[in-house]
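Reading is simple: the token line describes the chain's fold. The lines below illustrate.

. . .
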Amino acid sequence: MDRHDTLNVQARALHATDGTAELYLTATPDPRLPLDAQLRETYAALLEHLREQGMAVFCERFFATAKAMDAVLAHRRGLPGVPDDGVAPVALAVGPGSYGGFAGVQIHAVRADLRPRPLGRGDGGAPAEGRVIRQGDHTWVHLAGLSADPDLEEAEQAGQVFSRAASLLRQVGADMRSVARTWLWLKDLCGWYDELNAVRNVFFRCEGLIDEEARSVRLPASTGIGMYGAGGAAITLDLIAMPGREGEIRLVEAGGSQESAFEYGSAFSRAAVAPMPGGPTVFISGTAAIDRSGATEHVGRIEAQIDGTIAHVRSLLAQFGCDDGSVLTALAYCKTPEVEEVFRERWADLPWPRITMNGDVCRPELLFEVEVTAAPAGVRPL
């Protein structure tokens, strides 16, 4: 539900047969409250969920406008009980919207005894760059908020960020073949999206994910959206990887009612199914109103683009035996406040736990995009 007049925290848990568990928390504040009260109320509720279910943070993201970002960061630092293991939350700047300065918080947590460990620099006062979990022979990695010097050209920033991700993965015995899902938060997205695709393609070729001679690709699921990290970099990167279990990651290059995005130049799969601590999990990439030929659908028609996008996502969910009740968490991206208003009113009863916010989409004529994480067939989140 997209409640917009009160604090809304939705929790979805997955429990594996060995007792391992994951928790997805999706929180949107009451925009009528002062900013400091929004932060206090939201994080109090999130921390209560974590304590009650014995969970530790694997990844935390929050979304705020650039104007409010410094205040949100300062208020969060001053809150009692907020975990601090040296890994900063991924702080992402969104466009103005009906949510005011603070759009929401998304937390992915795991059972506390899995003990997520910081990964990366974490020295000289610099935050670590992600977390790693080890359980028996299994390892999971979440890289969070990787960015480069914002004074560099966009393409150079992208190259440095991809290289840094590969270096961090090697530290834990992984490589890009171990990656199921990436998130690319991109400042001025439409101004350099073609350059991003070119840099990513070169990187993926070097990493063996694109092999033209063998006519094969191994592309992670992904989102590339027009929001950016608090430091103002052109690209901020998150990813999830599971070294040693590459053969268990199912990458769905074309799926649902859409063909391969790689056919029109974007190197990502429509979805991935990956072995996570709580069990197999479906990661559906950022999805927009694009037809089988790669053309934008319903140009200039807000309602039709929104409806078509949700239909595409539901088609992918159905391919994995999932439905609306399978969704663990979702992020909805609206190009303008007008699109946001239409989506909130038209789909108020959509039962996906979600944060709705405003940011650019990868084509000038695309107005809406959504991504979801879901439990696969036969698993109902609690």
